[in-house]
Fold this sequence. Notes:
It comes from Bacillus canaveralius. By secondary structure, the protein is of the alpha/beta class.
Amino acid sequence: MEAVIFAGHGSRTGAGNQEFIDFIEMAMESLNTPIKAYSFYERAEPSILQAVENVIRQGATEVTVIPVLLLPGIHANSGIPQEIARARAIYPEIVFKCGEAIGVDPIIIDILKDRLASKMYAHDGNEAVLLVSHGSPDPVAAVEMEAISCFLGEELGTKSLVGYLINPPYFLEKLAELHEQSFQKVYIIPYLLFGGRFQSEVEERIAAFEQSNSSMEFIFCDPIGFDERIKKLLIQRAEGAKQLQ
């Protein structure tokens, strides 16, 4: 019997974890699989291994784990597969499969365009877009993030850049670059499933930057968030992973 487990990263806040649970429970209603569950990679329970134990108790003989992550960084490419390897060692009779993170997809570009439109983005030559992500030591995540920014810039016909909080290129460096190029208005899109502490830190640093660069206007857009269209992508990832041999 098939089971699908959606694995989120896990938040430091109970509200963030509950937001994930509510979203995934709604997404699971659209998935045609007998057994469905959610889990967290860290900071919350059930863990991936606990979720595996739960679905096996319900009769699962084939378990597919889907990372609920925007980019294929270290958690999707290493951390979650390691957890699956642990489960495989405990339950060698069970077939385990691992899906892919969301990554580059036209739906993501549409969501980003909607976030800009909601803030009255005007396609003005003096406007630029900055996608701000936490950052990952995995180079694959950076490659996909740059691709997303490139596709967005091409569709909008505007300057679109990527900046990170914890690793280069840092987002404040990218803001300085846009300032040197005389852009007057910059739309900031937090590349996140939900806001929280990370988004607050970004906003605080940009507010400090703005004090010494008053000629620029910064407009904060909503994060990608648990958008309804993300459900469609997760279902696609789940159905695709179940077909793997």
